[in-house]
Every structure is written in C-alpha cells, then in structure tokens.
Amino acid sequence: MHTTLDFPDLLQLIDERSAAFRAAVGAAPGLDVRVPTCPEWTLFDLVRHLGDGRNAWAATIAAGPGATAKAAPRDASAPPREREALLAWSAASTRELLDALREAGPDRGCWAWWGTTQSPLTCGAVARRQLHEVAVHTYDAQVTAGAPRPLPDEVALDGAEEFLSTFSTTTVAWPHEPAVVDYHAAEGRSWRHRLAADGARAERLPAPAAGDAPDATARGTAHDLVLAFYGRIPLDSLTLDGNRRLFDQLVEWDPER
C-alpha cells in the first residue's frame, strides 16, 4: 500500500491538526464538558490522553529501533487544570513529538504495536499514525466545542488508507468465509480488503477488475469513511451494498484475542 503523504507533509499536518485541536479546546464551554464522541471522557481527559500519548511516542522514538515496548514519557507530571496552561502543555507535547520524529527521520526502525499488520515498524509509519490520531481527536474536540469541521481532504484520504493498513490487516486467520470488501471514497480513491485463512490484506484499487466483484462495498466521502472506521458515525451513514453482515463481522473481529 503506497503512502500518500511524504514525511515532511506528515510533520506539517501533525502540527496543523494539533493547532486546530488546541483552538477547539480553547473555544469549548469548559474542560469538564463531556466529549460526545468519547462519552467516557471529559474534554480535559481528551487533552491529557493526546498529550500523554505524544510524550510517550516521543520517548519511544528516541529509544531507537532496539526498544521492545512503548517508553514512558520523559515528563510524567500531571497536566495543569487551568485552560491556558493546559493548552501550553499540549503544544509542548506536540513539539516534543515533532522534534523526535525530525531527529530520527522516516526510515529508522521504531517499536510499534502493529507488528502483524501491513504498516511498517518505522518512524515514518509512527508519524502517519500520529497524524491520524491527532486528526480524529481534533474532530472530537470540535464536536465538543459545537463546531465540527470535515477533515481536510488530504488527511481524510490518507486516514482511510492508513486505518485499513494499520487496524484492518493481520497475519491472523479471518475466522469466517473468505471475502472481499471494497471501499470507495467520493474523492476518487478506492481500496480493496481481502479476508482469508492467511489473514487480512488491503490494497489501493486503481479500478475494479472485470469479473472480480467484491462481496460488499462501502461508499462515502473520505471524511465519512474515516469517521465510520473510528466509530464516530454509524456505518449506515455510508452507502453499503452486498453482504451487510461482513461489516458487522469486521467490527466484531479482534485478531489479538
């Protein structure tokens, strides 16, 4: 699967989405308000989750390719409760992550939890994963502030592809009948997801091959595909064709169990 965004683009977009995240937090009614798309969290919890995660990934990148687990953040102190100080803490966590990624470069090896998937164990793949985590949580913060905005097209298109590569591929056997699922973004990009006894693979689909019809398809904007993949909107928000049960099976499937 080809990466859409180059490493410098990934770093720039992490910075931009992080700034949009902080703007949404700053515009929200307060830090104790519940996040509708993550109802178990307050907005403060969401900021802490994202900041702690960026700090931990920065430390993991700095630990080098020999690391065997995610590293503890260099600064494990609790984030401040006052909003402006919290926003400064969040910005500092983004800087720490970006500094670590720039120093390492895209090709250096890095520990990551997705070892059985198609995503490589490199700092470039970590940067890609970090962009899309920040992007989805920026949407969460915008919903909380009452002003959700679509993901930028380049982020949404890469986000759909990265989700399939990182969350939906594995060498673990698919426990149902072999199947093929296609995803079509309205912006003109498509992906094919193959599910079989030797695992799950995904690929960008230049054009459907004649006589190679999928068992199910999902269509929508890239933004809606990403939100559906992450459970932010119902799957039925997409146009679904073919074997609907396949989508339920994919949602229920946990290869690590």
Write up this protein.
The model has no long low-confidence stretch (mean pLDDT 95). The longest helix has 22 residues. Helix 1 runs antiparallel to helix 3, helix 2 runs parallel beside helix 3 and helix 4 crosses helix 5. The chain is 46% helix and 14% strand.
Radius of gyration: 19 Å
Question: Main beta sheet, described?
Answer: 5 strands, mixed
The stretches of 5 or more residues where confidence is low (pLDDT under 50) are none
- Say how many strands there are: 7
In short:
The protein is of the alpha+beta class and 257 residues long. Helices cover 46% and strands 14% of the residues.
Secondary-structure map with pairings?
Layout lengths: L6 H21 L6 E2 L2 E5 H21 L19 H22 L18 H22 L8 H15 L11 E7 L4 E7 L2 E6 L11 E5 L1 H8 L9 E4 L2 H8 L5
Parallel strand pairs: 3-6
Antiparallel strand pairs: 1-2, 3-4, 4-5, 6-7
Helix pairs in contact: 1-3, 1-4, 2-3, 2-4, 4-5, 5-6
Looking at this protein, list some descriptive labels.
single chain; 257 residues; alpha+beta; five-stranded mixed beta sheet; two-stranded antiparallel ribbon; 46% helix; 14% strand; globular
